[in-house]
Amino acid sequence: MNTGEVAVVRENVGEVNGQPVDRVVLSNASGMEVAVLSHGAAIQEIWVPDRNGDVANVTLGFATFDGYTRRHPHFGTVLGRVANRLRNASFELDGQRYDVTTTRPPHSAHGGAVPFDKFTWSLGVSNDGPIPVVNLGLTSPDGDQGYPGELGVTVSYSLTPENELVLEYRAVTTKPTVVNLTNHAYFNLRGEGEGTVEDHELQLDASFYTPTDSDQLPTGEIATVIGTGLDFRVPRPLRDALRDANDPQIRIARGVDHNFVIDRPGPDDAELRRAARIVEPQSGRVMETWTNEPGVQVYTSNSLDGSIAGYSGRLYRQTDAVCFETQHFPDSPNQPHFPSVVLRPGEVLRSTTKYAFSINAGS
């Protein structure tokens, strides 16, 4: 039964194409609050206290749900069927070629022209366990964006009394297909709309990454971060990488936009492991990313150009946020030596990601 340590409020905030859009707010006794929308399965707000007890919304997005119905760079939404990039918008599975819709011709990204965040998901709240769980569901029909099989997807959000936001993904299919799901939340631990994240101190538990070509598609190599501008094995400010003009990978992406291979003891390890730790020195806020996925795409919001006014009404600009998109590697269907994203009938895809918030008490 619910212990009462996490409260839940649900409300209808409108409709899209005749479908109701609901908003659920989870809050705990520590002063943390998370708001989730059924449209796009979006994380709309994450309110976190700083070392003085003052709370701020630390994720980019919009104050009203209609912002998510317009074109935007996937603020806080769930992406699929295949998140990240897919070379030439095609793949081969069991000897058959499949062509999917393009987003950056000739390539595809984040599921194609109509990814999962363009839809309103079903929403329910479960109070059967120790804490409330927000369950969102979506059915992707056979042939959707060119992908085979009817895919049933469930994403669950929960907030723990320990200030952890937990994301659980589940998917099943009627035909062999490929699936790579992630959430595209943009984080600024100083607060949404409070400017650049260049002073955030980042540590990645990743000794390797997947380099990209000029189209930002993986070359297929799994390379060491040693000697590159992408070496965050020891904590350092993001600006150190963002200003590294000598690193060709950073020049291609105009910042960090790379898949990092999370350190694991072996290829079959599927335990929840820490992928990243980031600290905002001014507020003292700390966030750790934990996942059972093999990779995490770290993205320093390089495409934000001041054309979008966000939650606070302030314009979002390049490096105003950083994303930690837990995932299988980009273009995995076309890279046989990457961890497989193939899902077959009778199998269940299960994936967990946890964003754990805390305070660095130092001044």
Structure notes:
There is one protein chain. The strands form 8 sheets. Strands 11-12-13-14-30-24-23-18-21 form a 9-stranded antiparallel β-sheet. The mean pLDDT is 96. The longest helix has 6 residues, at 248-253. The chain has one domain (6-359): Distorted Sandwich (Beta-galactosidase, Chain A, domain 5), CATH 2.70.98.10. With 363 residues, it is mainly beta. A hairpin with a 6-residue loop joins β11 (122-126) and β12 (133-140). It is globular, with a radius of gyration of 19 Å. The chain has 2 helices and 30 strands.
* CATH class group: Mainly Beta
Distance between the termini: 40 Å
Per DSSP, the total helix count is: 2
**Major β-sheet strand ordering:** 11-12-13-14-30-24-23-18-21
Q: Structural class given helices, strands, pairing?
A: mainly beta
The count of domains is 1
Radius of gyration computed on alpha carbons? 19 Å
Tell me the total number of β-strands.
Answer: 30
| Beta-strand percentage range | 35-45%
Shape type: globular
Mean pLDDT: 96
Query: In the CATH classification, which architecture applies?
Result: Distorted Sandwich
Extract low-pLDDT stretches.
Answer: none
Largest sheet: 9 strands, antiparallel
**What's the CATH topology label?**
Beta-galactosidase, Chain A, domain 5
What is the helix content?
Answer: under 10%
Task: Write a compact overview of the structure shown.
The chain is built from two helices and 30 strands.
Q: What's the layout of helices and strands?
A:
Layout: E1 6-16, E2 19-28, E3 33-37, E4 42-49, E5 55-57, E6 78-79, E7 85-86, E8 90-93, E9 96-99, E10 108-109, E11 122-126, E12 133-140, E13 151-159, E14 164-173, E15 177-178, E16 182-183, E17 186-187, E18 201-204, E19 208-210, E20 223-224, E21 236-237, H1 239-242, H2 248-253, E22 257-261, E23 273-279, E24 285-291, E25 295-299, E26 305-309, E27 315-317, E28 322-327, E29 342-343, E30 349-359
Antiparallel strand pairs: 1-2, 2-3, 3-4, 4-5, 6-16, 7-10, 8-9, 11-12, 12-13, 13-14, 14-30, 15-29, 17-28, 18-21, 18-23, 19-20, 19-22, 22-25, 23-24, 24-30, 25-28, 26-27
